[in-house]
Amino acid sequence: MLRVENLVVRYGHGSKTVVAVDDVSIAVDAASIVGLVGESGSGKSTLARAVVGLAPISAGRVSWNGLEFDPTSRARRDLARRPLQYIFQDPYASLDPRMSIGTSVAEGLGGRRRGRAARVGELLELVRLDPGDATKLPRQLSGGQRQRVAIARALASDPQILIADEITSALDVSVQGAVLNLLKEIQAETGVGILFISHNLAVVRYMAQTISVMKSGKLVEHGTTDEVIERPSHPYTQELLAAVPRLV
Ligand SMILES: Nc1ncnc2c1ncn2[C@@H]1O[C@H](COP(=O)(O)OP(=O)(O)OP(=O)(O)O)[C@@H](O)[C@H]1O
Ligand SMILES: [Mg+2]
Questions:
Q1: Of 10, 96, 135, 142, which residue is 20 to 30 A from 71 by alpha carbon distance?
Q2: Which ligand is nearest to the CA of 20?
Q3: Judging by DSSP bridges, how do beta strands 193-198 and 33-37 pair with one another?
Q4: Ligand 1 centroid vs 124 CA: distance in angstroms?
């Protein structure tokens, strides 16, 4: 459904050029979780941002259901964004502190007028929040609850693909697992496809059916989760695996 082919993103000019994404191809279909893993600075967020028009594309193509589109063109941006939602790492920064969480979630509903409050309530229930909390401000919620609001807002436009970029790394370890489980449950309930990005291979293994591994802007490994974990072909994946604490 979402297909990224031979994507290149360059920042800067001349000798200062950084090739943040270097000829990367990746595909995300409905009803699946695709994991994207790699160390800090490997280009994961840049790839995701390019797909939603937030980073410049130097080469390559992005297509949706077989049709190529330019994520950075204004006309295309809305079209591309509605079925494609990006959940940011930091729920503290991504929610407007002055806006009630119900209003934040309702923003994702676009122009739809009828039944707004009811739909907001349903979305809050979907992320296991109390619909009665709709009037609360973000500061009245915990980090994990705020990230649930961000997920509810992303789901409001009935997206076909969610991009979840390090959505638990700003959270306390004690609530990370709950947010991951919630995302898995929502995936099963709604059939949304998810590009799940993390620097933590253990987390990606838990979440995803296929895994792509990035290093220094390049895709160095791709396969089903079992293949990548059982038979990593690239030394870098082996390093990442070795760094994963053993789960008893
Ligand atoms: N706006 C920008 N301008 C210049 N360079 C950038 C910009 N954004 C990212 N980069 C560079 O691109 C490279 C990839 O960064 P990116 O944020 O995509 O990595 P990442 O894999 O998401 O890392 P992390 O796990 O820390 O989130 C890095 O070298 C970074 O410094
Ligand atoms: Mg990142």
A1: 96
A2: 1
A3: parallel
A4: 32
Q: How many Å lie between the centroid of ligand 2 and the Cα of residue 47?
A: 9
Beta bridge partners of 10: 19
Going by pLDDT thresholds of 50, 70 and 90, the confidence category of residue 90 is confident
Residues 142 and 191 in one domain: no
Q: Is residue 67 part of a domain?
A: yes
pTM over 0.90: yes
- Answer whether residue 248 is part of any domain: no
pLDDT in tens, 165-200: 999 988 888 889 999 999 999 999 999 999 999 999
Domain ranges, residue 150: 94-158
- What is the CB-side half-sphere exposure of residue 5 using CA atoms within 13 A? 11
Same domain, 171 and 190: yes
Kindly give the distance from the C-alpha atom of residue 45 to the centroid of ligand 1, in angstroms, as a whole number: 7
Would the CA dihedral through 117, 97, 89, 69 be positive or negative?
positive
> Are 102 and 198 found together in one domain?
no
